[in-house]
Amino acid sequence: MKSVVVGIGEVLWDMLPDGKKIGGAPANFAYHVSQFGLDSCVASAVGHDVLGDEILEIFDEKGLSSLVPKVAYPTGTVQVELDADGIPKYDIKEHVAWDNIPFSPELEALAKRTRAVCFGSLAQRSDVSRTTILRFLDAMPTTDDALRVFDINLRQNFYTEDVINASLNHCNILKINDEELVTVSRMMGFPNIDPQDQCRMLLTKYGLKMLILTCGINGSYVFTPSNVSFQPTPKVEVADTVGAGDSFAAAFISSILKGKTVEQAHKTAADVSAYVCTQAGAMPILPASLTD
Q1: Which of 35, 37, 86, 167 is most solvent-facing, going by the fewest CB within 10 Å?
Q2: The total number of structural domains that make up the chain
Q3: What is the pLDDT of residues 54-64, one digit of tens each?
Q4: Torsion-angle region of residue 58: left (phi > 0), alpha (psi -120 to 50) or beta?
Q5: In whole angstroms, what is the distance from residue 117 CA to residue 119 CA?
Q6: How is residue 144 annotated by DSSP?
Q7: Over the Cα atoms of the chain, what is R_g?
Q8: pTM of this prediction?
Q9: Which residues, in sequence order, are CB contacts of 94 under 8 Å at separation 6+?
Q10: In the chain, what are the helix, strand and coil shares in percent, each to the nearest 5?
């Protein structure tokens, strides 16, 4: 059976003032991985409703493989309100379909042929989906080259120290931004030292293969036990930043799986993320020059 790269967790609609847009980091990640010519799949859940049907239709239109059962909860939505300065405020609805992702024989079979997975903290706010995600990770191949990427994505108050610690113990690659690093370092009781040193502490504490630190316009870093790679953030005209981090993770992991060095994969990830920022929405078609 062919191996696959999986994004598992939330799939939802962002309900914006000018209409709704499909959202959720796992779907964004899986879609961009597919653009690098790798087999990918999004694993989540939707409701028995029109919003769920529309999500599945969009996945079909984009040729994105999915394992997204319908469950007895409404399809997830995020109410987005903009203040007078255009700053968004999010209300992520609870008790929705992606809070109740079932662990099924089909999902276990998918896990057994997964060569890389990306998961976050948001979908672990509920016991059901958290248990499913951890069971998925445990069912993956135990080979050293199976990649378990924790793209932490702290949202509102939907995370706990237990969730973060368990996820770090289940992953071998961590992706985190500079603001999240402050939160996690305080949670871990790390000293108030240089962020790069805090990253090295996390790398060592959890035995990680790599730690990816993104710092917005100030560039990004990839730490390994023996080296650190830095890439400046390309200067582009930004349309929006929706899904930029997800595309970064997808481009980096895809490049590593295709045999690129950490430095080469990092450069590709920075360029892809910058391109996505120039386009509206999280799932633009990438130029072939970026995915070769």
Answers
A1: 86
A2: 1
A3: 999 999 999 99
A4: alpha
A5: 7
A6: T
A7: 18
A8: 0.94
A9: 125
A10: 40, 25, 35
